[in-house]
Every structure is written in C-alpha cells, then in structure tokens.
Amino acid sequence: MRFDVFTLFPEALEPYLQSSILKRASERDLVQFWMHNIRDWATDKHHITDDEPYGGGGGMIMKVEPIFAAVEDVVGVPPMCPVILLTPQGRLFTQEVARELVQQPRLALIAGRYEGLDERIRQHLVSDEISIGDYVLTGGELPALVLIDAITRLLPGVLGDPDAPLKDSHAKGLLEHPHYTRPADFRGWGVPDVLRSGNHALVDRWRREQSLRRTWERRAELLDTAELSEEDRIFLEELNVKRKT
Ligand code: ADE
C-alpha cells in the first residue's frame, strides 16, 4: 500500500515513519510512504502557500494553486486514488474506517495548516474528509500519522501475530481484556489465578467476560452495535441486575 502525504512540514512526520513497526513495514516494502512538500509546487519567488482570507478576518488561508498542482502532479488528473483531507470538520476516524481504507492500494492525505484551506480544494480536489476527534490541532500532520499508523498495522504481514488486529480493542466492537506478564507477584500485586491455570477454555471465557465488563463500564454505547453471543447477553444481563441490586 502507498501513502502520499501533502504537507508543509514533512520533517514533522518522518521521524515517526522511520521508527519501529512502520519503519520495518516500509523496509520490507509492505507499505511505501511518500512525503511531498506543498511549498515545492508554489511558483512565485518566495514559494508562498498561504494568503489573507477574502472578506477579511484573522488568520491565513492555504492557497488553492500549490495544493492542486502538488496533488495533480503526484496522483494524476483525475486522481487515481482517494484524496483525503485531515480536518476537524471531517467524518470521525474509527477502527471501522481504518478497515475500510486498508482496502485501498493507495491513499493521498492532505495535512492542512493555518486557519484553513481555500474551500475550492474541498469542493474540487478532495474526495473524503476525516477528523481524528473533536478537538483542534495546529495542523493535519498528527492526524495523517494517526491514519497511517492505524491502517498500516492492518496490512497483512506488518504485525508479527497475524491475528493481532482481530484481538484489538474495537476489533469486534468491544474493548480489550486486561493483560499480564511476569512477574506473577509485583509489590504484592498478583495476577488472576485463571491466567496461570493452563486451562485455555477458562482463560478464553475470563477474557471475554473482562472484555464485556470493561466495555459495559467504560463505553456502554459500544454494546449496542457489538457482535454478542447468547452467553454474552446473559453475562451482561447479570451485570445490569447486579448494578440495580
Ligand atoms: N486538523 C486539526 N485538528 C484536526 C483533527 N482533530 N482531526 C483531523 N485534522 C485536524
């Protein structure tokens, strides 16, 4: 899979892409990261990429021409892949959206800066707008990294355990169960006996119940859309009864 990121600050993204799992994935050619500095497509002497808003008011607006030139040069006319703008006004990024986007062989990501972008970029270049949450960052670079990270780890071969993405929090619409590793005793704090029992059926059941309980306690709304078995429903019913008594 290939990512083309359009940004004024490629240096802000590179260290993260060159670390750990993402670095290994690109070295193994499972993914390609291409950073493009929008400034390189500004044709005036000073390589200006922003200007004052028509109608006045504060802040600077990213100009339409350099972004169009950059994206059209790299991704073609019409663009050969989705062109995603990172913006707090976009649809919310979730695990489900990550699973949708990992199906694409290529994605172009535009990381906006300043107060905003010329609206014509949204109207005539961008095919999708994504927000990573209801808060405002100084630019789209961190959101672009968030998308790249969440999507890349879903690519086959990127994680050591091919089933890992199936077990994540949110993978099946539930939060994940707790984990423990050695030592069995730390400052008198132990590990649930069941995890050391060697009984896999009991361990699986304990994990499922912990996952249900956590989701019920912390993000009860997720239970409305999660895939639940009859056994899960009975367990949740018991939790609800206990709360009421
Ligand atoms: N740019 C600034 N804030 C953002 C957010 N929350 N999501 C996506 N892009 C952004």
Q: Give, in spatial order, the strands making up the sheet with the most strands.
A: 2-1-6-5-8
Specify the structural class.
alpha/beta
Along the chain, the helix and strand elements come as: EHHEEEHEHEEHEHHHH
Shape designation = elongated
Radius of gyration: 23 Å
Describe the largest sheet.
5 strands, parallel
CATH superfamily of the largest domain: SPOUT methyltransferase, trefoil knot domain
Mean pLDDT across every amino acid position: 96
CATH topology category name of the largest domain: Alpha/beta knot
How far is the N terminus from the C terminus?
53 Å
Q: Bound compounds, please?
A: adenine
Total DSSP E strands? 8
Provide structural commentary:
This protein is of the alpha/beta class and 245 residues long. The protein folds into two domains: 151 residues, SPOUT methyltransferase, trefoil knot domain (Alpha/beta knot, 3-Layer(aba) Sandwich); 76 residues, Trp Operon Repressor, Chain A (Orthogonal Bundle), CATH 1.10.1270. 37% of the residues lie in helices and 16% in strands. The protein has nine helices and eight strands. Strands 2-1-6-5-8 form a five-stranded parallel β-sheet, sandwiched between helices. Helix 4 links the parallel strand 5 and strand 6. The mean pLDDT is 96. It binds adenine. The site of adenine (ADE) has 11 residues, from strand 5.
